[in-house]
Amino acid sequence: MIWLTIFLMTFIVFTSRYMFLAPKLPLKLNAEAQKLLSYSSPAVLTAIWAPIVFLHEGKPDLSAQNPYLISAVIAALIAWKTKNVLVTAVISMAIFFTLTTFAGL
Predict the structure, then answer these.
(1) C-alpha–C-alpha distance, residues 21 and 27, integer Å
(2) Angle, helix 67-82 to helix 85-101, in steps of 10 degrees
């Protein structure tokens, strides 16, 4: 049953993506729908990272002892200054690793 569910979910996701990416299919979205869809990526990414950064064991943690929060703030500053995704990811991961390994946060 689990494998059937996995294959069905794979089929559903592939089919829904293929309709928008296949150049031969005559599916075109109007400008308003395209504008609305442009907000979906930031919304989904925020829903993924916000609980990780701001919550610890189900409770809000905005302290200076939160390595996720410190790393996220530094990553935001690096991204703002450099506008380079690779540099931002590498430096912020190194900072997070340092905070969690050596600083004991």
Answers:
(1) 9
(2) 160
